[in-house]
Amino acid sequence: MMLFSLKGAYRFWQRNAFIFRRIFPESLAVNFLEPVIYLLAMGFGLGAYLSTIGGLPYLVFVATGLVSTAAMFGATFECTYNAYVQMYYEKAYDAVITTPLNVEDVVVGEILWGATRSVLYGTVFLIVVAAFGVVRSPLALLIPALFMVSGLMFSVIAMTFTAVNPSIDYFTFYFALFITPMFMFSGVFFPLDALPAWVSTAAWLTPLSHVVSLARALALGTVEGRHMWDLVWMLVVTAALFPLPVVLMRRRLVK
User: Fold this and answer.
1) Is 1 inside any structural domain?
2) pLDDT tens, 182-223?
3) CA-to-CA distance for 169 and 95, rounded, in angstroms?
4) 133 pLDDT more than 80
5) How many domains would you assign to the chain?
6) Separation of alpha carbons 142 and 133, rounded Å
C-alpha cells in the first residue's frame, strides 16, 4: 500500500530546493542550453529555407514545440541521473528514511521536485521565445500550469526507470530509446500528420506529443475542444503510473 504524507514529501522537496539554490546558475545553463541550440539551428538555420508549416512561420512552429522539450528535460534529468546519484552513490535516500520520513515520502518528494524543475526550465525558455515574438495569446500564461502536469508525468516515468536501473550507464538506453525518439517524433519539428499513418499513431501515444500539442495551442491562442483530450491523456497516464516508482523504490531500498 502506498502511504505518504504531503508534509513528508514537502520536506524532501524542500531539501532538494535548498541544494538547488547553490547550483542554480550552472544547472539552469546546462539544461537550458540544448533547447536554445536547437532553436537557433532549426528555427533560424532550417527556417531560412522553409517558409511556413500549417500557416505558421517555421520559427514559430519550432519554438512553441521546443518550449515543451525544455520542460521535459528538466523533469527527466532530475529523476534519472540526479535521483540515481542521490540514491546509489550519496546514499541520501537511505539516510533520509532513517528519519521520520519513509520511502514513499522520498519518492513523492522527488517527483514533485522534478515537476518543479520542469516548470522552472519550461517557463524560462517560454520567456526567451516570447522575446522572439512567437507567443501570440494571453493563454500562454497557462503554460506553466501545463508544465506542472507534464512535469509530474515525466518525473513518474523517469523515477520508475530509476527504481529498477542497475547501473547509471543504463540511462543511455532510456534516453536513446525513449527520450530521443519522443524528441524527434512528437510534433516539435514537423506536424504529425505529415508522417505515415502508423508512425503518426505511434507518435500520438508518446507523452511529449500531447504536451507539444497543448502548449503550442496555448501559445498561439488556437485551443480547441480536441486539446482537452491531450490534458486528459496526461492526467490518466500520470495517475495510472504514479504507484509504480513508489512500489519499486520501496522494494529496492527496504530489504
Assistant:
1) no
2) 998 898 888 888 778 888 888 888 999 999 999 999 999 999
3) 24
4) yes
5) 1
6) 17
Within 10 Å of residue 15's Cβ, how many Cβ atoms? 18
Residue by residue, DSSP assigns 217-243 as HHHHT---TTHHHHHHHHHHHHHHHTH
Closest Cα to residue 107, out of 31, 178, 8?
8
Query: What sections of the chain are H helices per DSSP?
Result: 6-38, 58-77, 83-84, 92-96, 103-130, 143-164, 171-174, 180-184, 197-204, 207-220, 227-241, 243-253
Residue whose entry in the numeric block shows the C-alpha cell 500539442: 213
The Cα 109–Cα 13 span in angstroms is: 5
Locate 77 and state its grid cell: 534529468
**Alpha-carbon distance 39 to 17, whole Å?**
29
In this structure, is residue 80 part of a structural domain? yes
